[in-house]
Design goal:
This protein is mostly helical and about 160 residues long. It is about 70% helix and about 0% strand.
């Protein structure tokens, strides 16, 4: 950040000098170059917004990162973590994944097609879980994120199939 402060002060002085000495188009070009330099320096000073920086602030990240789980299980853990913080992650990632697992489990153990026999699938899953796993459920991103308890109820229902 010291670089950014130094560059800002230098740019301010350069702007004053250019505005005092030049007329017309030169002022505009100089001003655009200085502002462009400020923006470029700000990006360099702050650095990119990497997912790692964002994840460092997540409360469960440290616990998940220290476990030695297979990559597929770690991926599911991340999906659950993100689905409990953002509705878009729940709607686009976790719910479709859980729906796919439910469809496979229903087909293997009960011979039920989740999409074709929705009534039997709904009866097996129960009224508390069915609204999340219904294949005809519209995606709505304005919903609130899933709570860990909701995820637990859904996963338990899938395990009980």
């Amino acid at each position: 950040m010291t670089r950014l402060a130094w560059f800002t002060a230098t740019a301010a002085v350069a702007t004053v000098v250019v505005l005092a000495l030049a007329d017309g188009v030169v002022e505009i070009i100089a001003f655009e170059l200085i502002v462009g330099g400020l923006v470029a320096t700000a990006f360099l000073a702050v650095g990119p917004l990497r997912p790692a920086r964002i994840l460092e602030r997540a409360p469960m990240t440290a616990a998940i990162g220290t476990r030695n789980h297979p990559p597929q299980l770690q991926r599911l853990e991340w999906m659950v973590e993100f689905a409990t913080t953002a509705s878009a992650d729940a709607e686009l990632r976790l719910i479709p994944e859980l729906r796919e697992l439910t469809a496979a489990r229903l087909q293997q153990r009960h011979g039920i097609d989740l999409s074709a026999d929705r009534d039997r699938a709904a009866a097996l899953l129960g009224p508390e879980v069915w609204p999340y796993l219904d294949p005809q459920r519209p995606q709505r991103f304005g919903r609130s994120a899933l709570s860990p308890q909701q995820v637990d109820v859904i996963v338990s229902a899938i395990e009980d199939l």
